[in-house]
Amino acid sequence: MYAPGDVRVVDRPDPRITKPTDAVIRLSATCVCGSDLWPYRGAEPINGPSPMGHEYAGIVEEVGAEVTTVKPGQFVVGSFFASDNTCAICRAGYQSSCVHREGVGGEGAQAQRLRVPLADGTLVATPQVPDADLIPSFLAASDVLGTGWFAAVAAQVRPGKTVAVVGDGAVGLLGVLAARELGAERIIAMSRHGDRQKLALEYGATDLVAERGADGVARIKDLTGGLGAHSVIEAVGTQESMMQAIRATRPGGHVGYVGVAHDVQLPGDELFFSHVHLHGGPAPVRRFLPDLMDRIWHRRIDPGKVFDLELPLERAADGYRAMDTREAIKVLLRP
Amino acid sequence: MYAPGDVRVVDRPDPRITKPTDAVIRLSATCVCGSDLWPYRGAEPINGPSPMGHEYAGIVEEVGAEVTTVKPGQFVVGSFFASDNTCAICRAGYQSSCVHREGVGGEGAQAQRLRVPLADGTLVATPQVPDADLIPSFLAASDVLGTGWFAAVAAQVRPGKTVAVVGDGAVGLLGVLAARELGAERIIAMSRHGDRQKLALEYGATDLVAERGADGVARIKDLTGGLGAHSVIEAVGTQESMMQAIRATRPGGHVGYVGVAHDVQLPGDELFFSHVHLHGGPAPVRRFLPDLMDRIWHRRIDPGKVFDLELPLERAADGYRAMDTREAIKVLLRP
């Protein structure tokens, strides 16, 4: 990305092993993230041309001398933050705050090849190279599925609970899927777009609410005996969406927020009297990868459906455009 | 309280049963709360002369026709919010957000007698009238002990964890006691006042940190291998104390905040990347009362030590002054 709205596909040197804990993978697929739209829309600064992309799945080509858990030829998925998976923070399940974490986005996963640091702690391999039709689902596990899943876990989704989901992008939709898998009794998807409503219903939504803001909150209250939802997933990251999530949650309920916060200020007094639990942040996808990849491998879940447009990597700019204009929910790029 | 700094003891009509669910109690003791200092210091508006006080323990004098669980002659403790203890929110343990909640502070517990609404759902009786020396501890259960306890529970204090406590008022000190009772391995009290440090150590603090703000956070990191505490109790309610609590918590850790928020705005991006769990609000003291009263009855805990000044109710103004100037941690008033 050269500037807001200006995405170009250019030749760059192939990534190489630079540390003995690195791996280099050949991407089977990559994609454009909702968070990539923040700089694309000028809502986040870009300092000169920046490699983009942080979602990846592919075949290991080479590993450093110290890598022991993955080997060339294996199909692997990793998260946007590389982690050692051994420090106290990782062991507590917060690999995206690993004391040795490194972003993989710096080198850009919207590419043919990617160097992944801390390969042993970051990458998870499938039993065998998967069938081609499963690739989109495994790619989804790299971020949007893991993020929606974390949001549902952070929102303490459990059997019998009513869950509301704020945001109908890929993460929100996969939050619906996660809520269903975690046993939610009722799942209210807040969406005003027909194609996304349809997918939300496929993924397990039991109710749709098209209203937003105060009206949206009032509808959630109507649907929950005036109390609010037990669990609310926030998957947008704006002031409005955060307040909508907090206000739609009953006292003692849980908000799981994973939309990357932009210009959000939470009023302490309202939060205090809301009595909600608040938890979120950059999803520790690595915590969930073995379980999620197992569910995909056995075709129990189909998160790849969020990719409703597939383009060759060369057409990345068209992919950004389609997501920016909401023509596509999420764009898969084939290197 | 007639105005900031202006507290007077005046004659008012005795409270009476106004609803069949009410009880009237004769107070054995009442007290001044840290939160009473907000209006006293002009940091919260007062609309004309206002009855003050919301902490109470005493003997039931009269009950309404529908009250079944307490009866005249019993010694009872209740919380600052009356609750039905039967609605979905109460059953989830959030009695201070009960759908029928009523503040008892409106009539003022700094008095000889108090009408308590929803007596069945609010009051808890002791097996017999307790010995006089236990009265201060039972009075503490009405708010500051229950609030410190809730903060520790909200901060997920568990055996083996390191807990930091921001705030050395009565609530913070009883947060230390709660952390010890809940099995914390290490309890770091942040305090710069000798008398409070001493009580913190008696209540189970293993470390004292006198620094505040960024320096205080740095000390907590030093004491925890650079990671931060697992659990942090926030018992002040200012912007500085909230940020200190959030920054002193390790990723994946828990902040339990019970200081009544005043002019607090939490920056969404910092909260997002902090990876902390945030929970708090007005403590649902009623959830904990049976357990806490049992511990006091059997003399396993001595929360009444936070009262380091006792005055007759007539001298309430002196009590406010002593707390405002920090001459006293907490002032007990004898009606």
From TrEMBL, chains A, B:
Domain Alcohol dehydrogenase-like C-terminal: 170-280
A GO molecular-function descriptor: oxidoreductase activity
Co-factor(s): Zn(2+)
Keyword Repeat appears in the UniProt entry: no
KW Oxidoreductase (keyword) present: yes
Residues annotated as domain Alcohol dehydrogenase-like N-terminal: 20-118
A Pfam family per the record: ADH_N
InterPro entries, per the entry: ADH-like_C, ADH-like_N, ADH_Zn_CS, GroES-like_sf, NAD(P)-bd_dom_sf
Keywords: Metal-binding, Oxidoreductase, Zinc
Record-stated family: Belongs to the zinc-containing alcohol dehydrogenase family.
Name under which the protein is recorded: Threonine dehydrogenase
